[in-house]
Design goal:
The longest helix is centred in the last third of the chain and has 15 residues. The protein starts with 24 loop residues before the first strand and ends with a helix. Helices cover 23% and strands 32% of the residues. The protein has a domain of 146 residues: 2,3-Dihydroxybiphenyl 1,2-Dioxygenase, domain 1 (Roll), CATH 3.10.180.10. 47% of the residues are buried. It is built from 9 helices and 17 strands. It has a 9-stranded mixed beta sheet. The chain binds fe (ii) ion. The site of fe (ii) ion (FE2) has 6 residues, from strand 10 and strand 14.
Length: 379
């Protein structure tokens, strides 16, 4: 891979991960969308998420409707405003469909808010208790990049289906799981020169450490240029790679995102499966579109990654990519954007030891993205 020369970035000082913000996992991801009812149908019947909970006019929610879907440990909340004006419409108008909240499961939402705001996080809302007949939860929120927020969710005294205010939701129609298990990582795109600022935010304000990986350096190529660093919390359950655009021969895919999303935001959600061949076969059968690398990728890939358990033929047929690091290998594939603007997409990943993020595939991937950008006239 040809490395471009860049202005040196200031080195950031990243402390060891501290435990002032213990995170139990990703609680849920909330997307603001234009039509939550139809988005819910898409995530159920294309992606295999089961319906879980609902709030709307029928449950006393006058100004917005939310559908909650779940597949194993992944919970999505799809929210649409019911009237004109207000922050939800502002979000939609500015960004199109996209992720608003990355909610983190904690043992103590008040302490999480206090620890982060005292280190410089901007509060979205102070700790508040919500109750219903199933118990109580404590929620608090802080800002991160763009209009994205983190919500801390403390649910140890709650045994309802989702959160107070939501009713169980059991629509007609069978939903078949596709074997998606948990969120492996969620990637943010931030603006020019902002990567280190946000890495420092996660280090200082949230106690994350920069993950030692093959991706933690300048990964610009002669193709689409970007830089990326990976921040991880102490127990490794939460991993947030952060990208910024870089000057290259062509317009950066990150810049295209920032242009269409009108700022920083979540670029992709990587979801893990134990059987990527089965998962992706079914997703493709259901019409989900993936980036495709040229068939020549498979002519030499095993020279690069060595022996793998899977037959190459189905990987080639489906377009699944392979990469290896010191600890093992991984299989991954990326969808095309799943919204109208060329912004958010998904990654399907199966880890077989590897803890990195697929750097060896970047060149082939960026060329595939470039072909898509060229079709959009945004290269
Ligand atoms: Fe990824």
């Amino acid at each position: 891979m040809t490395m471009e020369q860049h202005t040196p970035q200031p080195e950031i000082v990243v402390p060891e991960a501290e435990d002032f913000l213990p995170l139990l996992g990703t609680d849920h991801v909330e997307l603001i969308v234009g039509n939550a009812k139809q988005s819910a149908y898409y995530y159920m019947h294309a992606w295999g998420f089961q319906p879980l909970a609902y709030k709307g006019l029928e449950t006393g929610s006058a100004d917005s409707v939310s559908y909650v879907l779940r597949q194993d440990k992944i919970t999505l909340v799809l929210t649409t405003p019911l009237a004109a004006g207000g922050p939800l419409n502002d979000h939609l108008n500015r960004h199109g469909d996209g992720v608003k909240a990355v909610a983190l499961w904690v043992d103590d939402a008040a302490k999480s808010w206090k620890e982060t705001t005292s280190r410089g996080a901007v509060s979205v809302f102070a700790p508040e208790t919500r109750e219903d007949e199933h118990g109580k939860v404590v929620l608090s929120g802080i800002e991160t990049y763009g209009d994205t927020i983190h919500v801390f969710v403390e649910r140890k005294h709650y045994n309802g289906v989702f959160l107070p205010g939501y009713a169980a939701w059991n629509p007609a129609g069978e939903v078949q799981s596709l074997g998606l298990k948990y969120i492996d990582h969620m990637v943010g795109n931030v603006g020019w020169g902002e990567m280190n600022t946000w890495c420092q935010f996660y280090a200082k304000v949230m106690g994350f450490a920069q993950l030692v990986s093959f991706d933690d350096k300048d990964i610009s190529t002669e193709y689409t240029a970007l830089m990326s660093k990976v921040m991880s919390n102490g127990n490794g359950r939460i991993k947030f790679p952060i990208n910024e655009p870089a000057e290259g021969r062509k317009k950066s895919q990150i810049e295209e995102y920032i242009d269409f999303y009108q700022g920083a935001g979540i670029q992709h959600i990587a979801v893990a499966t134990d059987n990527i061949i089965e998962t992706v076969t079914e997703l493709q059968r259901r019409g989900i579109e993936f980036l495709q690398v040229p068939g020549t990728y498979y002519d030499t890939v095993l020279d690069r990654v060595g022996e793998i358990d899977e037959d190459l033929a189905p990987l080639r047929k489906l377009g699944i990519l392979i990469d290896r690091d010191d600890e093992g290998y991984l299989l991954q594939i990326f969808t095309k954007p799943v919204v109208d603007r060329p912004t958010m997409f998904f990654e399907i990943i199966q880890r077989k030891g590897a803890q990195s993020f697929g750097k060896g595939n970047f060149k082939a991937l960026f060329e595939a993205i470039e072909r898509e950008q060229s079709l959009r006239g945004t290269l």
